[in-house]
Amino acid sequence: MDNVAQEVPIALVYNGISHAVMMASTKDLTLFAVGFSPSEGIIQSAEEIRDINISKYDSKGIELNIELYHPARLWH
């Protein structure tokens, strides 16, 4: 029997602003956020992230709150 990774909706919220909802596994959520952020042009390096917190974790999905040092980049 093959193991299949289960994916759940993960909302990425930057400095209180919802950016995207992606389907992903719950493993390594911090790495997911760090990898997703530069690919979207939100940050250039991981050093721009001040903190990552999971604020919701229930059957409907997960909300990742990502706090950036320079939030002005969100509007460019």
Mean pLDDT: 88
Give the radius of gyration.
13 Å
Helix content: 10-25%
Strand order of the largest sheet: 2-1-4-3
The biggest sheet, with number of strands, parallel, antiparallel or mixed sense and barrel status, is: 4 strands, mixed
Strand content: 35-45%
- Termini Cα gap: 47 Å
Q: Report the uncertain regions.
A: none
Helix and strand composition category: mainly beta
In short:
The chain is mainly beta and 76 residues long. It has one helix at residues 29-39, and strands at 8-14, 17-24, 49-58, 61-68.
Give the arrangement of secondary structure elements.
Blueprint: E1 8-14, E2 17-24, H1 29-39, E3 49-58, E4 61-68
Parallel strand pairs: 1-4
Antiparallel strand pairs: 1-2, 3-4
Description:
- This protein has one helix at 29-39; strands at residues 8-14, 17-24, 49-58, 61-68.
- The protein has 76 residues and is mainly beta.
- The relative contact order is 0.26.
